[in-house]
């Protein structure tokens, strides 16, 4: 009884309040955001620090090898700092705005990079581009910011497509479709055989649905409209956007119902096990695939809907940008020049297991049939897009995730969904 | 007599002198933690209030917008949904963990053979990090996972659904693992409270012919008032800060159906990069927690007086 005298009770009450302070919903926020915790780096001629989000084992090993090679050449020294990709994504603005930022970062080309450039956070790397004269114009444009200087150096890109197992397609006696009509017919056939035709993985990775939106939009309305929409110059409640969902709805009955609940990695497992027919995904999914299944994989391009629309493909480009505040711009540019060279790019492709295409046109990609086919598909395209978040911003991505997963669940509410999407997007654009 | 008078007249001056000259050690014990708290807690918290009046992307300097963020909050359907979900969470998670924890404490308070094992078993989930808990429950909920297998085994396969991906069930599917953990924690708090009750009170009540329900109602529960304040604080704080389990199971999805104020604050801040707006949500969370707990404390003190 004496344990709970009023004095002690008051004390415990205060403990509760102190706990509240520690919960400090607001303090948590501002502490993270205002005190930029700059990693210790960059002293004049010191080592160039690379902040890398390539944390999968093979990609990490490949980067380590590249940095070791660069250091062995004696043109400078660099040190690699590999960060889990989700942490990297949320911390990137903090890195770039800190007083003493790391020098070089792995990241994506396109709108995401240009956003930082417009805030004068990125180093002008036009010098590096002087030695990249043989790079295709598309990559140069992609790496150029609004003021006309290059701020990005591409390392490689990859493609998205409908992946399937050759042995399963043979077993089911079906062919790759070319057009939307053929595609729907294929879905119908597979469904008749008791196989859910289209795999997807939205649990935990809802952004995968954006590939469907991107592709339908660039097939129906074309890449220029798509880019304007994602830049806030068009509206999501436009009838042209609704047309995308009308098409999508034709394919909805063929989606694997379990796909809502598991992430794309498990959707990959389902595809490989023959539990789904095909899967619209980027080549990175193969990281989660066992080696023996890789030879059995093939893909076809997203079916053509309107032949009059210039052919566009999603080809997300990965590479590097540097902080405008780097203390060692010379060393940083030397490292970028090395990384964009044939030797480094071939070494990276060889060491990483991912199916990627080097950005340097002289560097040889892997000669597996899959990579040859992917490269041919991209070469044939008139326009390349990046991906929803890369063509807009990471901030816009959650609005797409909400709208698209809701559409897949409740396609009847499409008008309301598009209105909400537009309202959400306006908030993001307004900041 | 004289002795008593002199003591009573001396004591006040002695007290006054002592309060005038505080011991330096005491001053240090008060000021040092206060200084540390100021830097790490009070200052950032105040800053949070300031940020809630600004528009800020974390990169450019914050721009003052007055109460715009709060006006927007009032018309934000997602925020309203998150608020409702937080209330549901508070009631279900808070209420059930108190009932469950108290019930378990009553059952397990008597020293019996093997009771230590049951107590330990109930407490084990508290030891796991919530992220680990989430991983375990994800396996439980996954398509064709343990939950589905169990339902099929008892012939209820028509109930099977994508538990975490169905907006009807997502919130409840997340509350369950949170409860699984919290009940053990609350049980331990109540066990400590029950142990502190003087057995003589129960003895006396029994002598007066009180049955076990009457003893629970009129002896045990009133004696636990001190613990209740702690449990309430813990429950309210844990409910409002519940984030990790929701984030690792559903991230507030599908389409905001399991969104809590805490997850909405996080995604607004670190995904949409709207730190001013997120700070406004944080302020609302703070006010809510303060209101609930202050309300209880004021009532508790009034009863005491």
UniProtKB/TrEMBL annotation, chain A:
Transmembrane segments: none
Highest taxon of source: Bacteria
Pfam families, alphabetized: SBP_bac_1
Signal sequence residues: none
InterPro entries: Bact_solute-bd_prot1 (IPR050490), SBP (IPR006059), TAT_signal (IPR006311)
Protein name, as recorded: Extracellular solute-binding protein
Source organism phylogeny: Bacteria, Bacillati, Actinomycetota, Actinomycetes, Micromonosporales
From TrEMBL, chain B:
PROSITE patterns, sorted: ABC_TM1
InterPro entries named among the record's database cross-references: ABC_transporter_permease (IPR051393), MetI-like (IPR000515), MetI-like_sf (IPR035906)
Subcellular location: Cell membrane
Membrane topology: Multi-pass membrane protein
Keyword Glycoprotein: no
Segments passing through the bilayer: 25-46, 87-108, 120-140, 170-192, 275-298
Region forming the signal peptide: none
Pfam families assigned to the protein according to its UniProt record, in alphabetical order: BPD_transp_1 (PF00528)
Domain ABC transmembrane type-1: from-to ranges: 83-298
Keywords linked to the UniProt accession: Cell membrane, Membrane, Transmembrane, Transmembrane helix, Transport
PANTHER family associated with the record: ABC TRANSPORTER PERMEASE PROTEIN, INNER MEMBRANE ABC TRANSPORTER PERMEASE PROTEIN YCJO
Protein family: Belongs to the binding-protein-dependent transport system permease family.
UniProt protein name: Sugar ABC transporter permease
């Amino acid at each position: 009884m004496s344990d709970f005298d009023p004095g002690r009770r008051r004390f415990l009450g205060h403990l509760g309040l102190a706990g509240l302070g520690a919960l400090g919903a607001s303090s948590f926020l501002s502490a993270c955001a205002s005190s930029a915790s700059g990693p210790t780096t960059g002293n004049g001629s010191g080592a160039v620090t690379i902040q890398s989000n390539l944390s999968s084992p093979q990609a990490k090993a490949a980067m380590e090898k590249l940095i070791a090679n660069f250091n062995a050449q004696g043109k400078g020294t660099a040190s690699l700092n590999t960060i889990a990709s989700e942490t990297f994504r949320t911390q990137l603005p903090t890195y770039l705005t800190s007083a003493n930022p790391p020098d070089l970062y792995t990241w994506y080309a396109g709108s995401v990079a240009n956003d930082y450039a417009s805030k004068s956070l990125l180093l002008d790397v036009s010098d590096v581009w002087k030695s990249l004269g043989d790079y295709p114009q598309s990559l140069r444009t992609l790496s150029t910011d609004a003021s006309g200087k290059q701020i990005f150096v591409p390392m490689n890109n990859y493609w998205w497509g409908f992946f399937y197992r050759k042995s399963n397609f043979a077993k089911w006696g079906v062919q790759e479709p070319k057009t939307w009509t053929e595609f729907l017919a294929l879905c119908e056939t597979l469904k008749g055989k008791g196989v859910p035709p289209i795999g997807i993985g939205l649990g935990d990775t809802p952004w995968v649905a954006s590939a469907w939106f991107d592709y339908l939009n660039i097939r129906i309305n074309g890449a220029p409209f798509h880019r304007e929409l994602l830049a806030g110059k068009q509206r999501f409640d436009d009838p042209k956007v609704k047309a995308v969902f009308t098409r999508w709805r034709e394919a909805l009955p063929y989606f694997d119902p379990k796909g809502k609940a598991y992430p794309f990695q498990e959707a990959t497992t389902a595809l490989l096990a023959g539990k789904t027919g095909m899967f619209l995904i980027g080549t990175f999914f193969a990281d989660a695939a066992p080696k023996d299944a890789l030879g059995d994989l093939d893909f076809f391009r997203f079916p053509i809907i309107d032949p009059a629309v210039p052919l566009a493909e999603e080809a997300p480009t990965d590479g590097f940008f540097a902080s405008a505040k780097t203390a060692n711009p010379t060393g940083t540019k030397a490292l970028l020049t090395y990384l964009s060279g044939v030797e480094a790019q071939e070494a990276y492709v060889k060491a990483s297991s991912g199916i990627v295409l080097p950005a340097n046109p002289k560097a040889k990609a892997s000669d597996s049939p899959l990579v040859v086919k992917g490269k041919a598909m991209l070469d044939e395209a008139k326009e390349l897009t990046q991906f929803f978040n890369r063509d807009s911003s990471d901030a816009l991505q959650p609005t797409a995730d909400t709208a698209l997963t809701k559409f897949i669940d409740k396609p009847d509410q499409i008008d309301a969904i598009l209105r909400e999407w537009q309202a959400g997007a306006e908030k993001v654009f307004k900041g | 007599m004289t002795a008593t008078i002199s003591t009573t007249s001396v004591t006040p001056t002695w007290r006054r002198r002592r309060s005038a000259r505080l011991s330096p050690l005491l001053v240090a014990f008060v000021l040092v933690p206060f200084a540390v708290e100021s830097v790490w807690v009070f200052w950032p918290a105040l800053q949070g209030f300031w940020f809630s009046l600004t528009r800020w992307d974390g990169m450019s300097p914050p721009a003052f917008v007055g109460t715009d963020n709060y006006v927007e909050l009032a018309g934000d359907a997602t925020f309203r949904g998150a608020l409702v979900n937080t209330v549901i969470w508070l009631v279900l998670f808070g209420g059930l963990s108190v009932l469950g924890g108290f019930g378990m404490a009553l059952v397990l308070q008597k020293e019996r053979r093997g009771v230590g094992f049951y107590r330990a078993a109930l407490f084990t989930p508290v030891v796991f990090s919530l992220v680990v808990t989430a991983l375990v429950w994800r396996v439980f909920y996954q398509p064709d996972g343990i939950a589905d297998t169990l339902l099929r085994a008892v012939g209820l396969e028509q109930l099977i659904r994508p538990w975490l991906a169905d907006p009807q069930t997502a919130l409840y599917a997340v509350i369950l693992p949170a409860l699984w953990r919290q009940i053990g924690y609350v049980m331990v708090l109540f066990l400590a409270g029950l142990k502190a009750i003087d057995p003589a009170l129960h003895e006396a009540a029994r002598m007066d012919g009180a049955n076990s329900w009457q003893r629970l109602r009129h002896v045990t529960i009133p004696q636990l008032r001190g613990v209740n304040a702690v449990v309430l604080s813990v429950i309210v704080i844990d409910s409002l800060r519940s984030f990790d389990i929701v984030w690792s199971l559903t991230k507030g999805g599908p389409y905001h159906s399991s969104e809590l104020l805490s997850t909405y604050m996080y995604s607004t801040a670190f995904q949409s990069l709207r730190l001013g707006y997120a700070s406004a949500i944080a302020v609302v969370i703070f006010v809510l927690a303060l209101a609930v707990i202050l309300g209880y404390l004021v009532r508790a003190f009034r009863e005491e007086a």
